[in-house]
Specification:
This protein is mainly alpha-helical. It has 22 helices and no strands.
């Protein structure tokens, strides 16, 4: 029965994607489907709802991050921080290589910060805004950002994801990072080539259409406007926790909105909640957005997805998968089995963390080499949730940067990493068997 339920759930999402329907509808249908499974397993309705609520409570701290990202992206717009950086960058960035630059900048900042969410709310917002200003396709820029923010999330020494894998597999963090760096070289280089080629293929008119936007109609510029962005980088160097780091940047941007842009304090608070709206209509596509309200859609996605994880754990919906994975591993190898497990857990869980934990539980007994298993987890359960639209890992990055769902196919690094590992392990296994 469990396989039938999971199959129906997958079919619902497949139809949703094909028809372009709102993901929340599919998630809502999934919620009722899994509640029905709990009732079928003889649990009472109150028990099943308690399981769902427990799942939501397990990710409750993420809602603080939602609020901080919403406020940060709002006041950065109001203070002129984003517009100032765009103005500086537009004079130096060649549009034909901008998509590659967006990828590299987000790779660098995510490695420094160790967090995809913090990177997307800072460098992600900046690079998307610059891309909009110089006429880049939002989907391509969004894909480069999505791939870049998970470069460091996967292998930064200060990444909680890398630390989680290290703890679960009992492998030294720096040993794991060294192994990850080796496996990432080719996918990273190929991604750079693809992003460079995409930029070269864009028509010149599209690359320069919006380069002449006059932000001076809207803001009073001075170098101090870069302070909220500089503080993010500076405090991260001193390993200040990301939430505290973002709060400091919000406070600085709010202060600059008041002192430099003459924003009323109540209006600043309004912007933190509802987002910034440009009084100059021509500049609206480049500067409008942000605010806590902008994160409500992704919060609804997270609530529903998180409720699933509670029901899965309470009803044992995934218990039958382990035996099938063992059979699959004996036939095709450990890495393909780990990859399959990561795809399944990423599809049915709300978060990267849960996908990593579930994959570790399902596949931990398949591979006796702990270092190899740690690398396998990093190349599957860490990056795959980032291309699942209803996963926190993907939804927050897209929401923070105002990137469309069409960005996901352009996150090449996130596909090339597991694909290269699959090709490498498959050929290695075949050569050993000869």
């Amino acid at each position: 029965m469990a396989n039938i339920v999971l199959g129906i759930f997958a079919a619902i999402f497949f139809i949703c994607i094909l028809t372009g329907s709102e993901l929340l509808y599919a998630l809502g249908a999934g919620f009722f489907l899994f509640v029905g499974y709990g009732l079928y397993k003889k649990y009472s309705l109150s028990d099943v709802l308690s399981m769902a609520w427990k799942g939501v409570m397990s990710v409750r701290t993420i809602f603080i991050v939602f609020m901080l990202i919403g406020m940060l992206t709002g006041v950065w717009r109001a203070s002129g921080t984003i517009a100032y950086i765009i103005t500086l960058a537009s004079d130096f960035i060649e549009p034909s290589i901008f998509i590659l630059i967006a990828f590299l900048l987000n790779c660098a900042v995510s490695f420094l910060l160790g967090t995809s969410f913090g990177t997307s709310a800072t460098m992600g917002v900046i690079t998307m805004s610059i891309g909009m200003t110089i006429g880049m396709p939002p989907a391509m820029v969004g894909g480069a950002i999505l791939a870049g923010v998970y470069f460091g999330d996967r292998m930064s020494p200060v990444s909680t994801s890398a630390l989680l894998v290290s703890v679960l597999t009992e492998v030294d963090l720096y040993t794991n990072i060294r192994n990850m760096a080796k496996s990432a070289v080719l996918p990273f280089l190929i991604s750079c080539v693809i992003y460079f080629a995409l930029g070269e293929m864009l028509p010149d008119a599209a690359a320069s259409a919006a380069a002449s936007a006059d932000f001076e109609e809207l803001y009073i510029f001075s170098p101090i406007l870069a302070l909220p962005a500089v503080s993010i980088l500076l405090l991260s160097f001193f390993r200040v926790p990301v939430k505290t780091n973002m709060a400091v940047s919000i406070a600085l941007a709010a202060l600059l909105s008041y002192t430099e842009q003459a924003q009323d304090p109540w209006n600043i608070l309004f912007i933190m909640i509802f987002g910034y709206v440009s009084p100059v209509p021509e500049l609206a596509p480049m500067v409008n957005g942000g605010g806590i309200v902008s994160m409500l859609h992704v919060a609804a996605i997270v609530c529903l997805s998180a409720s699933f994880s509670g029901i899965f754990q309470g009803t044992g919906l995934l218990d039958g998968i382990h035996g099938k994975l063992e059979t699959f591993a004996r036939r095709f190898g450990n890495y393909p089995a780990t990859l399959l497990s990561a795809i399944i857990t990423s599809l049915i869980s709300c978060s990267q963390t849960l996908a990593v934990i579930l994959t570790s539980q399902l596949c931990g007994t398949l591979n006796k080499d702990k270092e190899q298993f740690a690398e396998d987890l990093e190349d599957t359960a860490i990056v795959i949730p980032a291309v699942i639209p209803w996963s926190i890992a993907c939804a927050i990055v897209l929401a923070a940067t105002s990137a469309p769902l069409a960005s996901i196919p352009y996150a090449f690094y996130l596909y090339l990493l597991p694909l290269w590992k699959l090709i490498h392990t498959t050929f290695s296994r075949r050569s050993k068997s000869k």
